[in-house]
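quick one, 268 residues, struct below
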Amino acid sequence: MENLTTSSSEGALDLKRMKDFIAHERSAIVPAGTNRSNLVAASYPWATGDFGIDQYLKTLNPSQACWVNGETVYGDIYITSQNWGTYTRPLFAYLEFVDQYPIPNQVDLQHQVTQKSGLTSSFTTEVKSSYSVGAKIDIVNVGSSISTGFSQTQSWSQERDESWTTTLHGPGTFYIYQVVLVYAHCATSAANKCGANFKYKRTQQVNDWRTDLYYLSAIHKNDMIIVGPPTPPITPLTWDQVQQYVLIDHWNDWNFDYSAYNDPFRRY
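---
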């Protein structure tokens, strides 16, 4: 690709031409038969930090999802058989359905559900190779004013079940959701060796020896949302729909700050 240079095989991109790089249409892999019926045609709102996410997802009438502004960081992520220098940024948040509970009478009842922590199983089961990331990647949340509510190690490990109890005030049917945070990644030079392991991805050939891999991951946030009368239940997005919407349909609506490569405070 013309006018796009790197300082090394896994180094920083020439920021002078970054606008052209981001605008350039990249190859996309879109699985057949993707269900897009729940996707909102208009773009979801943009939020910044926990406060912004709460404004859209922790209200009396919450949205399905929101875009998330945030810092880009750079560090290693292990995919398939080795570490890859990877740019990471928070990009999206959505509500994942947990449970529904009907209360026929005007009473208060305690209800216990299973809350999740760590990387979502919908993400990890879809990646057809070894995948791991160290807890230090959580500087991406610190720099973006986001807290998962779990420890750094717990946030980026395999999914775990936690017990969560709430009191519901009847009558009515109550719907419980958990907030999921979505991150965009650019794994430099990883496309040829690792691309086939991701159902949804984009790739970009930077030069003859480097083709980058773009994909999304997701982790759970320690935020449970209860929707009850008179608010109607939310039709949740699936992980397939989120990837289709964010990575494929709206690819040109977001980017990375590649200067993180040269910023010691944004490297881990």
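The first strand starts at residue 27 and ends at 29.
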